[in-house]
Write a structure and sequence with these properties.
By secondary structure, this protein is an alpha/beta fold. 45% of the residues lie in helices and 14% in strands. The protein folds into three domains: 242 residues, Rossmann fold; 83 residues, Tyrosyl-Transfer RNA Synthetase (Orthogonal Bundle); 100 residues, PH-domain like (Roll). The protein binds tryptophan. The site of tryptophan (TRP) has 15 residues, from strand 1 and helix 8.
Amino acid sequence: MPSVAVQTVFFVASPRAGLLNPNIGMTTRVLTGITTTGTPHLGNYVGAIRPSVEASRKPDVDAFYFLADYHALIKCEDPERVARSRHEIAATWLAAGLDPEVVTFYRQSDIPEIPELCWMLTCVTAKGLMNRAHAYKAAVDLNVENGVEPDDGVTMGLFSYPVLMAADILMFNANLVPVGRDQIQHLEMARDIAQRFNHLYGQGRELFVLPEVLIDDDVATLPGLDGRKMSKSYDNTIPLFMGGAKALRSAISRIVTDSRKPGEPKDPDSSHLMTLYRAFATDEQSAQFRDSLKQGLGWGDAKEQLFTLIDAEVGPMRERYEELMGAPDRIEDILQAGADKARKISGPFIRELRAAVGLRAAAVAPAANSKASAKSTARARFVSFRDDDGRFRFRLFAPNGDELFLSQPFSNPKEAGSVMRTLQSGVQASWVVQDGHDVVLRIDDIDVCRFPAERLDAVQHALSPQETASA
Ligand code: TRP
């Protein structure tokens, strides 16, 4: 698993399912995370960060981007490094133009609903499925090769890491997950797990949207200094911000080329300098660079041109990056605001899921034919009435008498009555989060009522069978 995912972006307007559908209209929820173990390099920027920022600006995209710091613990036991990397990756994303007002931008470890969901999913995930995970299998193969115990050094974190990733994705009912090819299998597993959970607990509803993987071949995989894929594990990276313009220029000067002298024609297609150049240039600029190489541009000059091109894009970001790195409180505020936004969705949804698996407050079921117990066990009540405008509405009250919601007005009393009875019968209503803080209860496309998300638990409890009476 690379420390910074190589991601790609692509758009489709796909229909959304899900009990708690936070978006109305044809937006696509795109979600991705970056594991916080390293310092972003140029390859991460071009392969992951830049496309994610571009995607987030599309009007039909509802982007959820997060710092996968629980994932970092799987492979990094250095607390300082995890902490520093979280900070660097957050600053990089912001410096690259991510607008936290538009994107839901958060740190995984600020969302306690994720590990809770992870456990629920763990309990429906076949161990055999995890046995097939590439990352785990690779570790086992290596151990066998080295003649040690197959599971030597394998933690439960590594083994079940696809479940945590599924929780990240399913928690927010993401439609599309842009990732690198090495992550395709994890998306398949997330779908498997979601299907199994839906089947076991959905009672015909789709609790989870089945996410789709997104691999975009247009996004460049940058070559590193030696021409292999740029990666920390190959020690061939070009820094993005670290060390400033000086370090960028010096890394570029170390890119391996052939030994052709200035004046000798070069072959642009076999030079990874060209690939790097193309990742930052317009088509016109690329064509020019190509011609210059063919006409004998010296490698030294070519590298200088490459530096100038990259620095024109990266330089202004570097300034913002340095500023942010010097203001950790600002990053923290942004992440906290992001966590608040995310939890407006994950909070009500996890309550829904808890109820679905049976982790709910004991329902006070009145003993069927005992008057005494019926009296002592207060029940939730519907009260219907005619409002000042002559239209028909009803209210739902909790057993303790608190008003839970007021319905929308119906012009026809029969319609109001039928909606009320449908609710009483315990039918599957759908819950839609609106404006981030309200829940709209919907039956057959009718918005029945709207109430603050904090009340969702109480409303659902009141609407569970045997809880309601009408007046
Ligand atoms: N596992 C991914 C990687 O190593 C990072 C990641 C964690 C992620 N959770 C995710 C990516 C959810 C997409 C969606 O690259």
